[in-house]
What we know:
Elements: H1 4-11, H2 26-46, H3 49-52, H4 59-91, H5 99-113, H6 117-128, H7 135-146
Helix pairs in contact: 1-2, 1-4, 2-4, 2-5, 4-5
Amino acid sequence: MNGLQILDLLSHDEALTTPLSNDEDVVAQFAEKLVANAIDSIKTLRELRPRMFPSTADLKSLEIARALRVEFEKWVQDAEALFAEGMQLRAAGHSIPRLEELGDYSGHTQAMLQVSLESHLRSIEQADRGEVISIEEMRREIQLNGNR
């Protein structure tokens, strides 16, 4: 994510962290643009999610899936740093629109990354072997365990 290091430096510059006389807040505006760019970036990456969890284990599909995972992981790392900077600016009284949206996307992406490629492929193999439980069976099992 471009600009994160600059934001970090600017947000710690006393001369720039207070609103300017003409109500222009350079640091907050820069942070706002970085947040918008990060959100646009993850929306673009999310369009490729199906390629991160391929239905076959051919070499090309696996290569794409691994490369996408690296991109999503890097995005989360940058987004979390940006979110932390944005929260610090907010605590100092600056408005950073869409910061919660960035946090939501980060959380969703982190949750998605909890499923490894290997785990995904194992689940496909299990389904191919018929080792699945229907939703109805799962409901009955949960109800039985809840009544004990």
